[in-house]
Amino acid sequence: MSFPRGSQTQKIRHPIGTRKGPLEVPPPTEKDWPKEDEEDHVLVDPNEELDSLPQPYRMINKLVNLLFDQSWEIIEERNALREAESSQIQPTVFPPLGEIQLDKMPNCMAVSQDYVFIGGAKGFTIYNLYNAKQIYAWEKLKVDVTSIWATDLGNEILIAPVDEMGIIRLFYFYKEGLYLVKAINEVDDTSKQTTCIKMEVSQGGDFAAFLLQGVGDIWLDVYKLPKETWLKKIENPQLTSNPKKKVRQLQLNTLGLISADQLEMDTNACFKGDIKLSLPVYIMKIKPPKPVTGTPFKSPLEVFAKIKDCYGLGSGQNHFIKDSQWEQQAEIFQASYKKYLDGEWEEEPLSTATFYFLLPSCLFAMPTEVKGPTGMTCVLGIHWTRSHNFFLYSLNRTLKDKADPEGVWPCAAPIAVSQLSCSSSYLVLACEDGVLTLWDLAKGFPLGVAALPQGCFCQSIHFLKYFLVHKGQNMYPEGPVKSQTKCVVLCTDASLHLLEASGTQGPTISVLVERPVKHLDKTICAVAPVPALPGMVLIFSKNGSVCLMDVAKREIICAFAPPGAFPLEFPWKPMFAVSPDHPCFLLRGDYSHETESTDNAGIQYSVFYFNFEACPLLESISKNCTIPQRDLDNMAFPQALSLEKRCERFLQKSYRKLEKNPEKEQEHWARLQRCSLLLQRESFKK
Tell me, what is an example of a GO biological process annotation in this record (predicted)? Predict the structure, then answer.
């Protein structure tokens, strides 16, 4: 109710000292809510201001006003953003060139040579990359395929699908035939079934490694693949095939957008299950390194006297620490972090591994007694989670040999992420403290160490094929490049960085995309290099957009999007595959049933085919992307620095000396043992 100005008595706030009544804590009731607004103001004319509301309505009024102010700020911010976007030049959006329609939901996808491998319900299907024609359909499982790998072996392709039970199977795809090699971890007793987490195949397909997880344990199984034997059996099928068995022709599923003429299949396309290929040879089992424990040795002299081998000296392995030291360190840790240790502890997850097959180099040369083709994989590199060390295992061994690493690269912090280049020439190790170490494996020395900006931690690393900017255009050098590499680094805060290294010059890091602060829908979820386009990467954002970025100019060239009715179902985890040999990529898009029927049986799943050469902006780039050698000579491109040559010759000379004189190494070790025994005896006499 409002009052006239002249009839209302002014309410004056009295000093605290003149107030009457006992000084005690009032009970928490609505009557004692603060009335400062009412006490500090004089009621004015009702035409100018209304009387203040009683509690709790006054508090509700404040909350409503606050909510209104915040909403208005958001509206103004969105309007400003909309105006800014409308004023900016939007990138050209290109639609897909083709579409593969599927009746069942695809779970995974891989591209190799001219084929697309799509894993889904009860198996996987193989399609032609150009005309979306289905070639093979292997559907013999009772569960779905959740992940699939496809490795190019030259004329053959090695396919490895993993089903929901964690069983991985190895397939050999050659010409018109699909052959099942082996189910790697399938067992009869389901209680002992292991799960395959990851797999890798060496360059050339001579070795394969599978990361398996069992009940409370994890390990890596390494196999040698008999490729030559497989090829002989396939080229001479009369030696192994059973003539009584009939080969089942694969049936085709109808594709919605492909005409009947395009769906004609070669009559020789079949699954040749009657030919049994030789099984892979099991050569090694690698387990995570055990934690360092106490030793009964009482002094370093006793350690030197009792150990018979010098393996691991100075490498960060084979530590010998007294039990009392461990107990002392445990007490200090418990006292320092007692308030954090008193709560409930969650079970620590199992360690996982990242592993690569490495080619011979100065760092890990093959033994002289081992004879193998030039360029054949000889070393397996692996690092485990929460581990500081990168282990190197020789592949020239049998199952009877002890699985000990031949080399260890210790790092200052636990290794979080690593990546090997496609040519197996460069390796990046990113530690948990944001420091990246770049190794030139071919030369045998590190290219340098770089640190990410403060607060940035590595999430993924992607190597780019080395390119140059020639006359304003990104181009690949025609000849081989030495000690020159570039890669993009995606950080956990969604920022994108470019790492460049060139010979003896230290590596540099530059920011490509800043961390999103206000517009979180533009958060980068995935990055994929495009080998067909020099210096180009695909960027997948949380809002479902797919953009092509030029890392040299640090600008968006264009964008790609499926039709409006087929948005990405999980934009924060897109399902895509970029062809390493052709200028194209594939992207899954699901039918949006919001506009039409909501019947699940009518939902259509599609895989869209995007061709870069079909885009006018990219057609000239993909066809003219190589710079001739004569232009490189005019640019004085440093393909080989004199300092690098001197370092290479020095390292090769040192390694040759070590290989020629293994007796001297053992002689020095025996001399050290004798000296330690003498020093230990003198200490006892004192």
Answer: electron transport chain
